[in-house]
């Protein structure tokens, strides 16, 4: 019964994919309408943060994690993280931001969360040329592992959609959710292989004991590892983390759809 409900909701959303595309396009146009730099704002934050960490770990400290060229290594983690962080933060406002439209239209209301994830994904795509530029400048070689990048994108999309569907109604009903997520996202950044690699955690060179085994339960570990393999196949830590990420992401989607469906009526009374 639960599986039929989830399948039906996904089918309904698939039928509305053209409307979703229009909403994503509208969201991006509105965001950059009054901006001189336009889409460049999408890459400034991850680029600035990558630059800071590159300076700290290559100029001020003796780096013992990651791989060279380190700026490319960083961007392979920073750009997917920026998509994830921005999607989760915006998902918490997805229903309240356009409350009148959410209440008045007959569209499936999950589409407002999907619009958020979709628009942040487009911004992620806008940032890819920055990664390509630094890869060319630093002569980082693109390996055949790049064919698995679409798989990373798919797993991350599923994860962010599921998490967004949970956060959107909960953030409307409970004000503490947004404050809590700020802390969670900050912790997730440092507990995800962004400024270091997954192999730095699991290789056994550091005495992390059982913590190394639990580390791959972070779904972003396998996702970022898959992105990074396009340039750094030598840092590959195995498929187990990717498998865990895929399982957790699908489970998150199923739970997210169920939570959203259960709380939808209550949320509509609040917004």
What is the gyration radius calculated from CA atoms?
19 Å
State the total count of DSSP E strands: 0
Query: Separation of termini?
Result: 30 Å
Structural class: mainly alpha
SSE pattern, N- to C-terminal: HHHHHHHHHHHHH
Strand fraction equals under 5%
Mean pLDDT: 85
What number of structural domains do the residues give? 1
Categorize the overall geometry: globular
Largest sheet: none
Q: Please bin the fraction of helical residues.
A: over 70%
Quaternary status: single chain
Low-confidence stretches: none
> Number of DSSP helices?
13
Notes on the protein architecture:
The chain is mainly α and 271 residues long. It has one domain. It is 74% helix and 0% strand. Helix 3 crosses helix 4, helix 4 runs antiparallel to helix 9 and helix 7 crosses helix 8. It is globular and about 55 Å long. The two termini are 30 Å apart.
């Amino acid at each position: 019964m639960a599986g039929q409900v989830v399948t039906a909701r996904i089918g309904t959303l698939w039928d509305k994919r053209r409307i979703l595309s229009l909403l994503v396009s509208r969201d991006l146009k509105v965001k950059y309408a009054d901006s001189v730099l336009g889409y460049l704002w999408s890459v400034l934050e991850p680029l600035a943060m990558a630059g800071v960490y590159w300076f700290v770990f290559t100029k001020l400290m003796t780096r013992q994690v990651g791989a060279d060229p380190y700026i490319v290594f960083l961007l392979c983690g920073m750009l997917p993280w920026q998509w994830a962080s921005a999607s989760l933060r915006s998902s918490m406002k997805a229903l309240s931001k356009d409350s009148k439209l959410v209440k008045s239209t007959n569209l499936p209301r999950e589409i407002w969360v999907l619009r958020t994830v979709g628009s942040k994904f487009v911004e992620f795509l806008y940032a890819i040329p920055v990664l390509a530029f630094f890869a060319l400048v630093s002569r980082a070689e693109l390996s055949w592992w790049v064919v698995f990048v679409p798989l990373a994108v798919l797993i991350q999309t599923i994860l962010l959609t599921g998490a967004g569907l949970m956060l959107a109604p909960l953030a409307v009903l409970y004000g503490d959710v947004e404050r809590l997520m700020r802390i969670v996202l900050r912790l997730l950044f440092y507990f995800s292989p962004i400024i270091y690699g997954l192999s730095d955690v699991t290789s056994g060179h550091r005495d992390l004991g059982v913590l190394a085994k639990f580390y791959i339960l972070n779904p972003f570990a396998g996702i970022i590892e898959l992105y990074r393999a396009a340039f750094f196949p030598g840092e590959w830590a195995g498929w187990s983390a990717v498998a865990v990420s895929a399982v957790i992401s699908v489970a998150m989607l199923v739970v997210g759809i169920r939570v959203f469906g259960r709380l939808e009526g209550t949320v509509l009374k609040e917004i």
